[in-house]
Amino acid sequence: MFRNFSSRLQSSKSVVQSLRTGNGAMGVSSPLVLHQAKISSSLTPIQQQLAVSSFVRSFHSLSMHRSEKVEKTPQEDDIIMDDEEMGQEKKAESITIEEPKVKKGEAREHLQFQAETKQLLDIVATALYTDKDVFIRELISNASDALEKCRQAQLQSEVKVDQGDLPLQIKITLDEKRKIFCIEDTGIGMTKEELIENIGTIAKSGSKAFIQKLKDSGSSDTANIIGQFGVGFYSSFMVSENVKIYTKSFDPDSPGYCWESHGSGSYNIYEAEGVTRGTKIIMNLKDRDKEFSMRDTVERIIKKYSNFVQYPIYLNNSKVSTLDAIWLRKPQDITPDEHKRFYQYINRSGGEPLYTIQFTADVPLNIHSLFYIPSENSDMFGSESSAPDINVYSKKVLIKAKHREVLPEWLRFLKGAVDSEDLPLNISRESLQNSPLVRRINAILTRKVLQFFKEQLKEDREKYVKFYNNFHGFLKEGILRDYLYKDEIADLLIFQSTNSEKYISLKEYVEQMKSDQKEIYFVVAPSKQLAVGSPYYEAISNKGFDVLLLQDARDEAALTTIMSYDDKEIKSIESADIEIDSDGTALNEGQVEDLVRFFKSTVDNCQGLETTRKLSGTPAIIKNPDTSITRHMKRIASKGQPLDVTPQTIQVDPRNPLIISLHKMIGENPDKAEVVANQIFDHALISAGLIDDARYLLPKLREVLQLIVNEEKK
């Protein structure tokens, strides 16, 4: 935009920014001319630097009184100095902004906006945008559109572009002292008719018309045109008392014009001399919005929203360092170092990603996505935001950071970017509309991510295990919360098992099942040692079946939600129907009835007794005890208090020597039999995980000790 700051500044600053029309920098309101406040020459270089640095203090002070919240980036560092250290009071930074000469008088035209425009202006200026700082994004987007149109025109040999040697760039100049914001581009500019059509008619978007023209001509190069709705320019009136536009069309025969309005329903158009090709917008800021004339504030906003615009941006004559939108490039053209830099930018921290996922599609939707999986899980305790850390862009312009709709919440551990020219934007471009198209994009991206993980599971098990150990909780959350993807996520689960020293998937488990095994078995236990020591494992172990080892209730919840895999029902070993065949002495039906009556009459919380052939050494177990999920929920409900034991049915092995001896003891020594029966029941409760507080057992253990001592005395 400013090509030669002395001469060109005056004539060139044409900033055609049609309401998102893409005809120039017209996206937002901007104050009038900017002056450069010079820091006193009496200050030493260090004092001058301190004076400039203290602008940050001014910004923080002002932002505390703003009604809108301004988000800080991690790069902002405050340097606090007192007046004595500075030597003298800091002066506001200002750069003189020159304006082309306007032909007033008979050349002036006073025009009214269209009928509804005044009302719409009020809506745009006060209610359409949730954050005022988006006006800078809108203006830069419009300027980028105008530059892209000019570039397209220059590629056509039959089109003559005025001042073809002007560099394609965006220039923002600030006058903090006079509260002025100025943005200009060297883009395609506007004629008088286009000014009236694009600026005088709200929601008339030149960019939209331009894209349609390209499509009608068969060209597919529309991705660099950002504007869609034609209201971006009017966001400038959120912060401005007065807005001027200087513009000159790329047509060599077109004169320059000045457009001026207070946003009150009418505007003036004048011919202007010395206007260079492009558009220049000068905004006189309102007192309450003077922060937008401060360099630090504006630079932060540029980096937040427009960090990937393809054309260079200059702020007060200094180039703003921006990043390359690497997600738009081919994967083979991106270096590991570029991935590392972008990952650190998007993740706001150091380190390198464990995985990189890049996906591009043109049909049925235009999507460019780049996702990273961190090496470590920073959300081990679930304290981070529930929204995926994915920035959503439309043609490299940030639409929304951490958007909730483009990926499901359970994939919130992903970092990265999604860019699509097909994204439906609401009229303020700040949020994605809740539409079937957005849900379609969500589904496409989710399945691509799941497919990537499935491939990694096959290709590099060691690396996948590292990923899984960090992020398995999110995958299981996906099974519980997103039934649509439960089968695809099931393919990604891996487990330790009783028969294997390595992690295995459900697919691998099924492939190695024995011919007589019909179900998939799991056990919830804190360690393999405790799992294989469980009495519920005895019958399965006797068959040689493998059992998946689950660590907690969340694992069990995921598997019970899946219910089956490859037509094999998934069951806890506690509910497995496997019996152990053996010959030998056993209680008959009448003797078992004696045990039933005795247990129900002497053992608290015993509501019944049955026989079982699932056991090989353990005398008894609890029938169908609460699942680990149920127990977990009960513990939460009890608020840390020990759970009361509820009535249970005990299953005894009629072949077990202890059970046979107990039956005999009932007739010979009922008191001793009662102590033994209670111990058998308590042991069964412990095996089922139904006793939280072992102190409950102490009185009964003392009874056992007393029995032993009494026997020794005899």
UniProtKB/TrEMBL annotation:
Its main location: cytoplasm. ATP binds at residues 138, 142, 185, 190, 198, 204-206, 228-233, 279, 429. InterPro entries: HATPase_C_sf, HSP90_C, Hsp90_fam, Hsp90_N, Ribosomal_Su5_D2-typ_SF. Keywords: ATP-binding, Chaperone, Cytoplasm, Nucleotide-binding, Stress response. The keyword Heme does not apply. PANTHER family: HEAT SHOCK PROTEIN 90 FAMILY MEMBER. This is Histidine kinase/HSP90-like ATPase domain-containing protein. It comes from Percolomonas cosmopolitus. The lineage of its organism: Eukaryota, Discoba, Heterolobosea, Tetramitia, Eutetramitia.
